[in-house]
């Protein structure tokens, strides 16, 4: 027997978090699973959100976000027996499904594996997906929780694998409930244990705290992508992230020595992905346009000091334009405006996402070229202005000279 309650969660702090994650509303999922004697055997209450990246038939990349959980069903959720452990199974229509399995040891139980499936054959959700079919990602979790303790994690946790990013928060779960009564003893997740603020089960307004603002210029890092046949993308740049929340601006310098990078190259697009301990992903997506390339898309998901997850995506950009077969360079500071809340300052930038030969940059197209082209125009205009003034003064003086003779 499955009993569940789906309700909006009040609290302005949660509203703020959902806006950051891009959701218009948030729902708390609550599941009370009972056995044949109607005793509770598994209890869970949590919030979650998913983001899927997929390739289109035009060889671009798009994103699908699942944040409205109001149509959730729980078919397949079980208490478990001696052969099979408890399982929570959640479906969102016929396109998405989510399953978490639990296992039991002598004195502990574990959240074992979390799996998420999505069907790109659904033409409403994925109308232009290049590959059609059901895709599943598996995330092993497997950490022990004492029996008869309820696992609690109010902080945001993120799982990322392949093209799926999963966010969880306000998690309260107890498998193998003893005597049909959920425990009052909590087992906190590591993020809640290390939090410097008191953890509560009800969200309140998140205080406006400011991260330390780096004054120094960010260190320049070198990044590359290999497609199996050699280097296909090169990037050298110093990066400074500017995040605005509640009119408070946080500035974060990317540190290359603690930043990992991956990516992929395709005939029409190229991706550079950066990640670190607090940055889940920072994506730069380049696009070909006839005989030129440019930065078309930036996506970011990262954890902030206040415990929230900041996520922004914009696939309608147009920066760093250069001709194919060359590299774009700009040593002066530039700003990539992804949204009102997120900008990236770049320093000593050089990128080449296509036509890389022998792992080396090709001919440079410098952003200062346009400025240098304007210099002779400005000088010529100024000289022409001076010449006109001289000629006007000459003719005025000549006229006055003739007027003087006429008086005699």
From TrEMBL:
Residues 218-356 form the Lysosome-associated membrane glycoprotein 2-like luminal domain. It is a single-pass type I membrane protein. The chain crosses the membrane at residues 373-397. GO terms for cellular component: autophagosome; late endosome membrane; lysosomal membrane; plasma membrane. Residues 200-213 have a biased composition (Low complexity). Its main location: membrane. Keywords: Autophagy, Cell membrane, Cytoplasmic vesicle, Disulfide bond, Endosome, Glycoprotein, Lysosome, Membrane, Signal, Transmembrane, Transmembrane helix. GO terms for biological process: protein targeting to lysosome involved in chaperone-mediated autophagy. Pfam families: Lamp2-like_luminal, Lamp2_2nd. It is found in: Cell membrane; Cytoplasmic vesicle membrane; Cytoplasmic vesicle, Autophagosome; Endosome membrane. Residues 375-405 form the Lysosome-associated membrane glycoprotein 2-like transmembrane domain. Residues 200-221 are annotated as: Disordered. Residues 1-28 form the signal peptide. Disulfide bonds join 153-189, 330-367. Belongs to the LAMP family. This is Lysosome-associated membrane glycoprotein 2. It comes from Pteropus vampyrus. The gene is LAMP2.
